[in-house]
Write a structure and sequence with these properties.
Layout (H helix, E strand, L loop, with lengths): L1 H13 L3 E6 L4 E8 L4 E10 L10 E6 L5 E8 L1 E7 L4 E8 L8 E10 L12 H66 L6
Antiparallel strand pairs: 1-8, 2-7, 3-6, 3-8, 4-5, 4-7
Length: about 200
């Protein structure tokens, strides 16, 4: 019995995966999820760059569409997010990341898809082991998604810090060169005042 429960739990955990997509310039990437009525689709994502020297924070648009093409959620200019929408009808729901406003080619989106399967609390089956396993699977999914988000966020902040440190270093070198050049020029210029010129 314990082996069976452990196998089921591992199966649910294996369904949770992080995804990465590189958005093309002026393009978008869309994905689909089959939902039943009252299910909840939740997507957490982080926008970054695959170039470690790029410290710029990129932004994308995100939206979710129903099976009949109606937009139920639209957010613009996001660098990260944790968005969710409930399914009003059963069908294939579409969620998209859009880079249509800019021509950047290195926008990398890492995202996790998770959600809540609707369970009627008045249903006698809701107080079962299957429901407890589903709930545990959902909590595990949330924890893993949060960890993935933190890893990506740390990578983005590290890239920003390293780029800033590099700029500060080269600016300091430039300032030292300017000060040294200015000092040498002043010494040379002042020496001309104290030179004794003899006329033969």
């Amino acid at each position: 019995m314990k082996v069976t429960l452990l196998s089921i739990f591992c199966f649910f955990v294996a369904l949770v995966q992080a995804h990465n997509v590189l958005l093309p310039p002026h393009g978008k990437q869309c994905f689909f999820e089959n939902l039943k009525k009252n299910d909840e689709l939740a997507v957490s994502f982080q926008v970054g760059s695959r170039d470690p020297n790029n410290a710029e924070q990129h932004k994308v648009d995100f939206y979710i569409m129903t099976p009949n093409g109606q937009v139920v959620l639209k957010k613009t200019d996001l660098d990260h997010g944790d968005e969710s929408a409930s399914a009003s009808t059963t069908g294939k729901y579409q969620y998209c990341f859009s880079n249509e406003k800019t021509g950047r080619v290195d926008i990398d989106v890492s995202f996790n898809v998770h959600g809540v399967i609707y369970v009627d609390m008045n249903d006698p089956k809701s107080d079962t082991l299957d429901y407890a396993i589903q709930r545990l699977s959902q909590l595990t999914t949330d924890v893993k998604a949060e960890q993935g988000y933190l890893v990506i966020r740390e990578r983005t902040h590290r890239n920003t810090a390293e780029s800033t440190n590099s700029r500060v270093k080269w600016w300091s070198v430039f300032q030292i060169l300017v000060v040294a050049t200015n000092s040498l020029f002043q010494i040379y210029y002042l020496r001309r005042f104290f030179e004794v010129k003899s006329v033969v």
